[in-house]
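Predict the 3D structure for this chain.
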Amino acid sequence: MKTGVRTVLDRTAELRRALATLTSQDVLVGIPADKSARDDDGVTNAQLGYIHETGSPLRNIPARPFLEPGIRAAQDKIVEQLKDAATRALDGDAGGVTAALNRAGIVAQNSVRARFVDNDWPPLSEASLNKRPPAQRDESGRVLKRGKSRRERGALNPLIDTSQLRKSVTYVLRKRGS
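Done. Predicted structure below.
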């Protein structure tokens, strides 16, 4: 009995590979702990990010969330990229899946970084605005340079002074289970 169906091209291996690429990876956005060292006081960017995301009543630091609101703001664009990744997986395009997942990560990363500028956070306290960094001194203790306060520098936006925290927000594609 003939069915009239003939296999011309078998792409099931490509489909399996592309689906495995899609289902075996997560797109993570945030501040990776292993890459969050700072130049100053020993607190990492990951720790600092958590403190500012949730606030610290003990240290009188109000919550200034950037991660969750940043993701929410770009949710539609992120979903668009994830749908593209799924479509490419069904087409058997493993490379296209990875590219779409990377685009989703970039969209999320950029949206979170944008929250540092476009936000409704509580303003800095007067003490924070007026605090000066320690003066730089030579070996004899003579003052070489006096630092300016945030107010004098015009750095009035909370969480943007050196931009180390904002720049530390990134995305990674990570295999599930690792």
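Strands lie at 25-30, 136-137, 143-145, 170-175.
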